[in-house]
Design brief:
409 residues; alpha+beta; Creatine Amidinohydrolase; 6-stranded mixed beta sheet; 9 helices; disordered N terminus
Length: 409
């Protein structure tokens, strides 16, 4: 069954049957949602309820079978009224603990927004004290990470279509951006990073899309900063002979369910790449392809693959080339209605992401190498090569154009 929730004229849906089916598939007795002061944004999204003014603790327990149960404070007793299931109220902390233990009778293995050792911090939203309390009731609290991925990252066919439409438009815009750099440099001797950022922003808006901050246009040494963002005041000139990195992302406007498209390319202005630029680009490209291949092989064979395994495939190529110290971020991130979504990231560096890469999810593959003058490199520059993938039962596809050599601007 689906529980349809209407609030202030809007409607959203919690699919109770799907949640309970997922709990049974994962051999879990239930999923306990808990919040205070809007700490757990995932709970509101998955349950389909508004947050708002939350000054008292609430608990919502969905068992693998049977009716959900609510526990709310008496002065905020309406907070879960949009959800199905009987309601119990408390006032004192003693009453809360007693009724919470009673609500969980018969359940032992319970999922929460918890990550052992805070390994996946995106999921680690329940405080340690609450986990301690539940363990005192002899409950086995396990991570809801894969459940969250299922209900946050798995895309509908309509959402997948929005990603491909954004891809079509943004690939064309990026190509226009490279041409614009060449035109301006050859006509005026130079342009600058922020001028090209504004050009790309206008093109994104004219194409009926939106972006967040950015895009990023990074020249020379600035490309060695993986999170560099030019401003009007800090913008550096782009001239003949320069190395340029463009990281650009957008999604369709006026559609809250639209999915992002996010890519990074690199190129050189009016010259051929140096031998070192060739070497670094080819190493990053090969690392990208290794991650793509291991994901495609896993899906073709119907073999589960976790985010950390896809990261390892990419990182092994860079390690074997002797550049491990210069690959300083994860290989990729989940992409959904948020640019950095709540599904599995391709990461065994910043986190050990054990979440499975699920069918019908989208994510980036974007290894990079960064060499700064601060580290004593005479050629200070960075290469990141970013594509997006969408998985399907039995296959995994790169969704846009693939850069296999440096752009000659």
């Amino acid at each position: 069954m689906q529980n349809t929730i209407t609030e202030a004229g809007s409607a959203t849906t919690m699919d109770l049957a799907a949640i309970q089916s997922a709990l049974r598939e994962n051999n879990l007795d239930g999923w306990l949602f808990y919040d205070h002061h809007n700490r757990d944004h995932l709970a509101y999204r998955i349950l389909g309820i508004p947050g708002g003014h939350i000054t008292r603790r609430w608990y919502y327990f969905i068992p693998a079978q049977g009716e959900p149960k609510k526990l709310v404070h008496r002065i905020e007793s309406h907070k879960l009224d949009l959800l199905p299931g009987p309601k119990t109220e408390y006032s004192s902390w003693q009453e809360l603990e007693s009724k919470l233990e009673s609500m969980l009778t018969g359940a032992t293995k319970i999922a929460m927004q918890y990550s052992p050792r805070n390994a996946i911090m995106y999921i680690s939203l329940v405080d340690a004290g609450t986990v301690e309390l539940l363990r005192s009731f002899k409950k086995d609290i396990v991570s809801s990470a894969d459940l969250v991925s299922h209900f946050e990252a798995v895309l509908t066919e309509a959402q997948i279509a929005t990603h491909y439409e954004a891809q079509r438009r943004l690939d064309d815009i990026l190509a226009e951006g490279w041409r614009e750099i060449g035109t301006r440099v050859r006509a005026n001797g130079s342009t600058d990073e922020f001028t090209i950022v504004e050009f790309l922003q206008r093109a994104i808006a004219q194409a009926g899309m939106i972006t967040e901050h950015g895009p990023n246009v990074s020249v020379g040494p600035n490309s060695a900063d993986s999170h560099y963002e030019p401003t009007r005041a800090s913008s550096k000139p782009i001239r003949r002979g320069d190395f340029v990195l463009i990281d650009i992302w957008a999604k369709l406007a006026n559609n809250p369910q639209a999915i992002w498209y996010d890519i990074t390319w690199t190129g050189v202005v009016d010259r051929e790449p140096t031998d070192r630029e060739h070497l670094i680009f080819n190493t990053v490209r090969d690392a990208r392809d290794a991650s793509i291949a291991v994901i495609q092989q896993a899906f073709a064979a119907n073999t589960p693959i976790a985010g950390w395994q896809a990261d390892d495939a990419s990182r092994a190529i860079i390690r074997s080339a002797g550049f491990a110290d210069f690959f300083t971020h994860r290989t990729g991130h989940n992409i959904a209605t948020e640019l950095h979504g709540n599904g599995a990231h391709l990461d065994n560096l910043e986190t050990h992401d054990t979440r499975l890469i699920l069918p019908n999810t989208c994510f980036s593959v974007e290894p990079g190498l960064y060499f700064s003058s601060a580290d004593g490199h005479s050629e200070a520059f960075g290469v990141r090569n970013e594509v997006n993938m969408i998985t399907r039962p039995g296959r995994a596809d790169v969704t846009g154009r693939i850069q296999n050599e440096l752009v000659r601007i």
